[in-house]
Amino acid sequence: MFIIVTKTFPPELGGMQSLMWGLSREMSKNFMIKVFADYHENHKDFDEQASFSIERVGGIKFLRKIRKAQLINEFLKENKVEGIIADHWKSLELIKTDKKKYCLIHGKEINHPLGSSLNKRVIKVLNNVEKVIANSEYTKNLAINNGVDQDRVIVINPGADPVQELNKKSLEKVESLLKVKTPRLITVSRFDKRKNHEKVIMALRNLKQLYPDIVYICIGYGDEEENIKKLVEELDLTSQVMFFKDISNDLKNALIAKSNIFVMPSIIHKTSVEGFGIAYVEAAQYGIPSLGGKDGGASDAIDHDKTGLICDGNNLDDIYSSLNSMIENKKYIELGKNAKEYVSKFQWDKTFEEYKKILN
Fold first, then answer.
1. Which stretch of DSSP H or E encloses residue 215?
2. What is the CATH number that goes with domain 168-345?
3. List of residues 6+ apart from 100 with CB closer than 8 A
4. How many Å apart are CA 305 and CA 350, to the nearest integer?
5. The CATH number of the domain covering residues in 2-161+347-359
6. pLDDT digits (tens, 9 = 90+) for 281-321
7. Counting runs of H as helices and runs of E as strands, what totals does the chain give?
8. How many of the other CB atoms lie within 10 Å of CB of 359?
9. Is the pLDDT of residue 13 over 90?
10. pLDDT at residue 246 is higher than 90
């Protein structure tokens, strides 16, 4: 039996939640598992459908971490457990056991200045696990540079679920919403500085001169939402930018499938960095190429000049010229076909083979 410890789990939405759900589901096909996850108000219906045991832990953040560790420590005493897999180094910090431990790392949560108290805590946990599983080459190198033992770190890219069949009504709704708007750019992510919506919108002002019917679809919410909406008004782009949040999965998938380019030229903001970018993979499944940023792990998800482009997200000219080169002569069609083929390597059944090698 394996224990999976996670702070991020469905029915809460997000890339990390999808990753931990996919991993738990694949684990349950091969091993007995028990998941210890954070409480979510709508968890009951979700948990009942799962084919494995999920224990939810509530309470305020600090106490929840202690309570969860206590429950796991008790469970370890009473049950035969082969190992523990965690979504975050903090999930392992209070667990006392000599069982094999495996920790996933994603980027920003380990990106603390060398020698700082947080860096020391990260190193103490990660240098005492069996394997550190990085989501990209970038994250692996970041971990090693921050003091993690090189021999412990391996790269396993996040798995992707098989593409969902598109809902006919949602597709019709998208077509009536977008009508003659083309080319179509889309970003599905939180509104935060790292995702770089701001520079995409600035590039859009210039692209609008060449492509008057261009549209930029933004799906998400976050701290930067009001600032981004204000910028759209200031640059007189309200007809070119559409905002969506709290929409159904069907509508989100239809909007992606009916777009031409997925745009997320991420940057490093303070310690926040894009470790991989599962959103690029999700777009590629619908034959949509991506524009990603050179800072972070996007180049694990995007094959430059084949399935999309990697640009310097800090350079407005580079974002503009990269988008223009993808739109010109509809180059995005060819890139999208390549992306759809390339992305099959991220399917969970293939990804999980890499986990089996270290767990067996």
1. strand 215-219
2. 3.40.50.2000
3. 82, 83, 84, 129, 130
4. 24
5. 3.40.50.2000
6. 999 999 999 999 999 999 999 999 999 999 999 999 999 99
7. 15, 13
8. 18
9. no
10. no
